[in-house]
Amino acid sequence: MRRGPSGDGRESKPAESPRRRALGVIAFLRGRIRASELLLVLVAIAVGAGAGALTSGVSYAAHAAQSLIYGLAPGQRLSAIAHLAPLRALALPAGGLVLGLATWARTRRRPGPVVDPVEANALHGGRMSVRDSLFLAVQSVISNGSGASVGLEAAYAQLGGGLGSALGRSLNLRRSDLRAFVGAGAGAGIAAAFGAPLTGAFYAFEIIIGSYSVINVAVVVAAAIAGAWVRHALAVEPTVLRTAVTDSLTASHYLLFGALGVICAGLGVAVMRLEAVLERYVARLPGPRWLRPAIGGVVLAALALIDPHSLSAGHGAMNQAAVASFGLAALAFLILAKAAASIVALGFGFRGGLFFASLYLGALVGKFCILALAAAGIATGIDPMAGALVGMGGLAVAIIGGPFTMTFLVLETTGDFALTAATLTASIVASLLVRETFGYSFSTWRLHLRGETIRSAHDVSWLRNLTAHRMMRADAPVISADTSAGAFRARFPLGSTRRVAGLDALGGYAGLIPVSGAYALEDLATPVAEVMIARDHWLTPDMAIKEVMGVFDRAETDELAVLGDDREVLGVVSEAYATRRYAEELEKARRDLVGSD
Question: Within its chain, how far is the Cα of 453 from the centroid?
Fold first, then answer.
């Protein structure tokens, strides 16, 4: 017998290993954090701070690359240069070549597309890959750093969302909390980019999470404030137009701004559709895929030599356009050049977003419309700068989405509540028209081109997971459809089951045989095939709940067979059970939305 230290014969317990103690502490902390909203907020602050730091790092890396390649002076923005030397323009096809080769090398190891925050929250319950997020950030830095007309906002949101997802998964958070952390991280990245916490928070709610939730407000807002504060603490200049407008707006002005929203909606849809058309044509080009960004770089270089303002995201050009006295022809040229450069860059495979490009284009469009009315002899009394700011919000909503996101961006930019209301007017008009006529934002449009059907970041993955295979009863009875009524009754007494799957001569599905129908046959020699139903209606295992309910409506029966390959009967699903499971999942989604247990 092993004796303890006292020698009393009692067996001593082995000492607990440091690793086991550490795992116990981690498990304890996980449980406390999951159960405490206050601790979740503290973790969200850490996510926001990390997103702010990553945003600052990406911004610095891209600007440093531009400064080195294009010889920018301290504080100078690439899109603000007055002249581009032809030799420096070669950086665009060279950057495209580097990007193409890097993307080719990555896809050989990981062939799937990078999951962005919108797709992660809509289809994957908030699960994102950190490695993929880092790679997208590298792609964006190469694209923007070489001068392509794409913004870095996609990288900001991707890194912030990826950080939130990674930390949330390490804490084993609930699905709804994990989605909130993805939104909080992405929103914090945007808040840091623009120095605008409210803008970042509503970006998270409207674009990444897809809804407002009482339980998520503290998490998202805390992360956005932390991200903006870190950017300020690092003394990195936010990428936003700071200005003040003192116009007093009347009811007629709001009508004009509503009309501006209509124009922004049309232009936004045109940009998104043209980008998709160009992408289809580029996909048909002969030669390796990794060469396509370099070809696009040649086109971008030609555009940049004609108009250097089309370079990069457009931060410097936007500040110039705000104070310069451009004529209508010059503004129209800038609009066409920037739109073309953005479409070409994305169509040929450069990585980045249209967030800031849409802000810049919207500012040009708004200013153009006000000046055009003045040139036509219509005195609106609206400052062209006010038109630029409202157009900035309207076009960004048409392309990116998020009416409140862009409205708060104008509010945090100007502090002008009247102009904020005008921006909200144009934004709502643009949003309604785009949703009615087109139905997608830029991020969901790109997912649609890949074959997805989502139209927002609302969590719809549970609908896809609730399939016929998961709901079916696998022990479905089967019998040959040629069986006589007498033999059928002998095998299936009344009350034993409601439906039996009938099989054809090859063993495949022929239809469903109601037991009551078989017992209603007067001649016992009659084949039960005489009473078969649902001959042309059945389910496949991968059908989601919405498809399942649609088949039930068309078949007008309360049970359907689930068939595999070669019409093999795998099971049976009842309409009552499918309806109940659908209602349960809807109630679960409602509880997640309002934060109730």
Answer: 12
User: Cα dist. 137→58, 155, 593 in Å?
Assistant: 7, 5, 31
DSSP 539: B
Tokens of 237: 């200049």
Predicted model pTM: 0.82
Tell me: the pLDDT tens digits for 65-104?
Answer: 999 999 998 888 898 898 899 999 999 999 999 999 999 9
Report helix angle 251-283 to 355-375, nearest 10: 130
Tokens standing for residue 163? 């950080």
Looking at per-residue pLDDT, the higher value among 237 and 358 belongs to 358
Distance CA 185, CA 161 (A): 5
- In terms of DSSP bridges, do strands 499-503 and 478-480 run parallel, antiparallel, or are they unpaired? parallel
**pLDDT tens-digit map of 252-289:** 888 999 999 999 999 999 999 999 999 999 999 998 99
pLDDT digits over 351-377, tens only?
988 899 999 999 999 999 999 999 998
Alpha-carbon gap, residue 578 to 470, rounded angstroms: 10
Q: Please give the domain boundaries of the chain with CATH numbers for all domains.
A: 35-233 (1.10.3080.10), 251-455 (1.10.3080.10), 462-586 (3.10.580.10)
Q: What are phi and psi of 87, to 5 degrees?
A: -65, -40
Find how far residue 108's CA is from the centre of its chain. Answer: 25
Cα 343 to Cα 3, 94, 273, 537: the distances in Å are 80, 19, 10, 45
Sheet holding 509-514, edge to edge: 478-480, 499-503, 509-514
Inter-residue contact 244 to 414 (CB < 8 Å): yes
Direct distance between the N- and C-terminal alpha carbons of the chain, in angstroms, rounded to an integer: 52
What CA–CA distance (Å, rounded) separates 312 from 316? 9
Q: What's the CA gap between 367 and 359, in Å, rounded?
A: 12
Token pair, residue 1, equals: 């017998």
DSSP code string of 92-112: HHHHHHHHHHHHHHHHHH--S
